[in-house]
Design a protein that fits this description.
This protein is α+β, with helices and mostly antiparallel strands. It folds into three domains: 2-54, Structural Genomics Hypothetical 15.5 Kd Protein In mrcA-pckA Intergenic Region, Chain A (Roll), CATH 3.10.290; 62-125 and 212-239, Alpha-Beta Plaits; 129-209, Alpha-L RNA-binding motif (Alpha-Beta Plaits). The protein is 22% helix and 30% strand. It has helices at 4-10, 16-24, 115-122, 142-150, 189-196, 227-239; strands at residues 2-3, 28-30, 33-34, 41-42, 48-50, 53-54, 62-67, 96-98, 105-112, 130-137, 153-154, 157-158, 163-170, 175-182, 201-209, 212-213, 222-224. Helix 1 (4-10) packs across helix 2. It starts with a strand and ends with a helix. Residues 2-65 form the RNA-binding S4 domain. Belongs to the pseudouridine synthase RsuA family. One of its GO terms (cellular component) is cytosol. Keywords: Isomerase, RNA-binding. This is Pseudouridine synthase.
Length: 240
């Protein structure tokens, strides 16, 4: 038997934390009876409903996706724009992205229907390293790079320490490619950090997530995560 909130999370309905709130708010029923006790355990024979809609225990799935630019990191968009799940028409499970990449940012994104797994990776306490490659206007000085590495104030708050290096310089065009590895997940953080040193971003790509990289994938392509990769991600989150 499993805890009710875990069953809801594994069904892809919500993260475990959100599932707990659903239970406390009286939105969950087991065998026709509203349940508000977080310690409740259910078996495979129990009938669970959230907002009067039955949930089904889906087999957990995990995907690594190369998000193209011009795509929304969401499962739907009220303005009819392309979203990341549009690239998974063959997947029957209700998958959703772990975290987000901006509309104009490309690169590595994970998708799953495992709410508990997604929550563990997105929780601020367990943020994994994420490496970005940014083509910027301007050439950062050594002082600028030290600021990025030691933390820089954006939105009134200093960022955590980061790994920062210059990969390429084009003196004629006064452009550079900067690699930045961060573990925080603040809104538009990389763009704001580079703007803070007067090097606005032209193009931004997430190249690594923890130990994962894009490999030979092209924009719009994906692959299932290997079981050993899923286990390793869980271990990294638990040890963070």
């Amino acid at each position: 038997m499993d805890r009710l909130q875990k069953v809801i999370a594994h069904a892809g309905v919500a993260s475990r934390r959100d599932a707990e709130k659903m239970i406390v708010d009286g939105r969950v029923a087991v065998n026709g009876e509203i349940v508000t006790e977080l310690g409740t355990k259910v078996s495979t024979n129990d009938h669970v409903e959230v907002d009067k809609v039955p949930i089904y225990k889906e087999e957990p799935v995990y995907y690594l996706f190369y998000k193209p630019t011009g795509v929304i990191t969401a499962v739907s968009d009220d303005r009819g724009r392309k979203v990341v799940t549009d690239y998974f028409p063959e997947v029957e499970q209700r998958i959703y992205p772990i975290g987000r990449l901006d509309y104009n940012t490309s690169g590595l994104l994970l998708l799953t229907n495992d709410g508990e797994f997604a929550n563990s990776l997105m929780h601020p306490r367990y943020e994994l390293n994420k490496t970005y490659s940014a083509k910027v206007n301007g050439i950062p000085s050594k002082s600028d790079m030290n600021k990025l590495a030691n933390g820089i104030v954006i939105d009134g708050k200093k960022t955590a320490r980061a790994n920062a290096r210059i990969k390429e310089i084009d003196k004629d065009k006064q452009k550079a490619i900067v690699e930045l590895t961060i573990h925080e997940g603040r809104n538009r953080q990389v763009r704001k950090m580079l703007e803070a040193i007067n090097c606005p971003v032209d193009k931004l790509k997430r190249e690594r997530y923890g130990f994962l990289d894009l490999g030979n994938l092209q924009p719009g392509e994906s692959r299932p995560l290997l079981k050993k990769e899923v286990h390793r991600l869980k271990d990294l989150a638990n040890k963070a």
